[in-house]
Amino acid sequence: MCFLRHEVESEEMIRLAREGFGKDRGSGAIRKDCQKSVHKDEPTAATLISSTTGAKLNCIFCDRPHLSQDCQRLSDMSYEDRKSQVIRKRCCLVCLKVGHLAKRCHSSVRCLICKRRHYPLLCPDLRKERESNLSSKDRTTDTEQRSTETLLTNLPSEHEIYLKTIMIRLRNRDKEVCVRALLDDGSQRSYIERNLAAELFLSPSGREIFSQGLFGGGISPASEHKRYMVNVESLNRKYSTPLSLLEQQKICSTLPRIHDRKLLSELASRGIKLTDVGRDSPPIRVLLGADILGSILTGRIEVLSSGVSAVETLLGWTILGLGKKREVVNLVTLSLQNMDVPKMWDLEVLGITDPIEKINESLLEEETLTHFKETIRICEYQRYEVALPWLAGHPALYDKYDAAESRLRTATKRLINENYFEAYNNVFKQWEEEGIIEAVPINQLAKEVHYLPHRPVIKPSSNTTKVRPVFDASFKKPGFASLNECLSVGPSLTHKILPLLLRFRSGAIGVIADVKQAFLQIRLRTEDRDVLRFLWWENTGCSEIRIYRHCRVVFGVSSSPFLLNATISYHLEREKFQTESLRKTIGHLKEGFYVDNLVTSVNAATELEQLKSQSIEIMKEGAFELRCWASNDSKEDQDKQMVLGLSWDVVSDELSCKLPANTDCTQEKPVTKRVLLSVINSVYDPIGFTAPALLLPKLLMQEAWRGKIGWDEVLPVELEHKYRLWEKTMHFMSKCSISRRLFAENYDDFTLHIFTDASAYAYATCAFLRCEFKGQVTVKLIAAKARLAPMKKSTIPRLELLGAALGARLAQTVDSILRTASKTYFWCDSMVVLSWIKKKESWNTFVGNRVKEIRDLTNIDDWRHVPGEVNPADLAIRCCDWSDLLQSKWWEGPGWLYNDEESWPCSEVSETPDEAFLERRKTVVTNLATGNEVRFGDRFLYFSSYKKILRMTAYVLRFCNNIKRNSPKLVNSLSCEEIQKAEETLIKIMQSEWPSEIREKYKDTIQFFEENGILKIQTRLILSQDPEDFTHPTVLPDHPLLERLVLHTHRSLMHAGVLTTLAQLREKFWIPKGRRVVKAILRQCIKCKRLTAGKVNPDPAPLPPDRIHRLQPFK
């Protein structure tokens, strides 16, 4: 033990010499940051265990036991990869260790190249030196290699790649199932999906613990895998063998099946029959590795004309190789992996947001608009120039063009193959002539910039532009941010859609128009143009690349919609347009623009002509051209128009939803979560008149989500059957239409009616407008919203309350857009909810918050009860298909609403249902009058120690003395008399707050007396020679100040125990139930807790194999 003590002391002295007295390089001064007190850990068992486990230092690049700066893999990694790996591991960029940031690192590391604080492996100068020494051939090879990696990472393959997949039969006793298997000779072991093992009721025959090597050299953490024995058979049952398979949660992602007819016919001509064919892609549930493949391969291989190879096994034929080129690339699947599907249901509250969300949006809008107004200016030709709204402290952008060059070559091949290269090239030539883009000067090529990849979007059906470029501002490399991540997107424009549609439906004549190339009419300031560079060819021979940059706002950048809307608003607020003659037109333009679309309505043809002429001139002043005017008053426009995603028939003046174009494709596919999500997002209805029919696929999606079904797993038969029945009626969607105009012509009066309802699956609200004119009544649906019930089960009254709150928000949105109605009615079929709203009770948090919101937004006297069978919102919470929706015509309102008010449903909330009182807030009633009183002594708890309280009291008493006229002024340090007087004052405060009823309990056994206003007790030791405080101790009742005094005494005695602390206190004080009080207070001492903590008993290590291996005697 002495040897260990000397070793520990020596190590401690060395560490103090290094850290406490070390000098900074280049200066003789002692480092101030090292002159801190060294914290010495207490020698506890917990410290021993943490020190033992923390001693293992692994490299952050290869996870092997050596220093990170000495790793051999660094020579194969680029500077960007090294830096991104350090950031990903959350290590310090100076010392490469975990637990702190570079700005707080005290390490004395110096780079040998640039003399800055980092290791040479993270030196940017070393990167530049290496790049300058690379030959042009090596640079080209490196660029092509990195471009290929980027292409493989960001772009889907243009060809089908077939792996060796096969259909096999698994059998366990009388249980049998056919599954897809992957033959992978790169895997050392064979695996079976965990769920499949459960379906076959397999019993594990053993367990194995091992790590799995990953692509790129990584190693997964060691984990336990169960081992199963199962019989594997071919589909024709000609071959069967028992195999040992290890369980795995998931084998791999989706792999395509063979469905190429030309390939299948060639295989059939050679007598080869495949088992894994079809257009669907079931999951891979078994992987047969190298431990099994060697025994089932026959050696026969057939190479087809397309280059695909057919391989024969005892389980059947399989193929391997590069298939035909894909005709359609579904880019939606790229974003589904990161999409938060529960948020998909939040998107239905267009224009109906929570108050907290409105506050956050207003703050964001203020910040972005302030920056916009400070940077916008008017340049030549009355064109506006804006700046990109950069986020403060945004990450670095990738400044190389290797990825952009790779994407350029890929796009060029496609354009040449599809004969669109010349048209694509002409677009850039036209842009350069119009000043939309410009070639980067030679003297600016070395500047730090960012390059945007681009790709062509081809629309052969377009009458104007059949091909146009689209720029990818979301592109990013590992360790760098994308351009969109560095920019503020500004306030969301989604909440403007419903108000725009309400204004569009208000007037007799609907009017739409759009701005020609709206984004390209706004200039960007010169400082921001270099982050919008892109590559294109110098000539049509595609032999030399030229660098261009954008001079205008780019479509595809996340901040572009905000910049366009803010610029138009800024233009309309110019002083020259604030005249009486233009006031009405300016109002239409301010409230009618959504990005580059103008959507509004007027009441007369003369008003329409005035709007057209004045709007064109006003927008022309800002270099904006309004075109493509359409209205239901024009005799020329006979085609259907698109208005904010809805189809508008200008002849019948009706709105309808556009039938999705992929309806036929989805009917051929198996029903999966991916298909459901595609169908849900393909139907766009911001008004909500199709809400009842859209409820079923959303419910199926929620059920699949609750069942944790994979994206490409086929739904259960019951769910699939419901979807197929619903899908057969989708052709009725185009026939479901509503009138655009809300108000009847020459109406006398109109009222607003809000209906709410809920079921166990959803809650909904709908708003109707009722107009009267000379006894004739018209009822039109304004808007409707249906929301799925939360995943967590809730009661029906609570869901009804959610529907009522949604209806209150909808009423506020509608009332802010339309003219004030003569009266607003709220209809609900739940007596419980009406009781919550009308009765003034103290409800619990969930109910109380929503009732408060409803009371703030509505008048409680406007809420009425309606029977459920005549509530139109009831249909929005019941699943129906498109044919049922068309037959119901629920957007025309309930029949009783066309009658007089006397015949409307009428039932008062007389008595509160018992179910409503279940949500009453639970309260505690107390009879103590002093329960809510604050004692004067509690104010001293502001200070954490008794010593501070004592000195503060002494200073207060000194101040009281010094403000007296004729009293001697006390200065300098506190005297003993002042401290004693302060302690007596504190004792008087504690005794004055001692409840009298508690004091009365001790009168029969203890003799109390007062001395100088302080309560003391008379003991039997009054004749002894002990001090006065011991023979006549002062009474200290239970008080918060007593806790500070006990802890102060405890610490002064070096954290002594209960008996020692109590004995010291009894020298001067008497504490009722002293032992119990002191013991309870000392339990709060943190240091005592740590020192008296029980020892840690680690689990015993397993016995070595030599001690448990079974052998014969004397072997």
From TrEMBL:
Sequence ranges assigned to domain Integrase zinc-binding in this UniProt record: 1039-1090
Region called Disordered, residue ranges: 1096-1115
GO BP, sorted A to Z: DNA biosynthetic process
Family annotation (Pfam families): Integrase_H2C2, Peptidase_A17
Protein name as it appears in the record: Integrase zinc-binding domain-containing protein
Biological source species: Araneus ventricosus
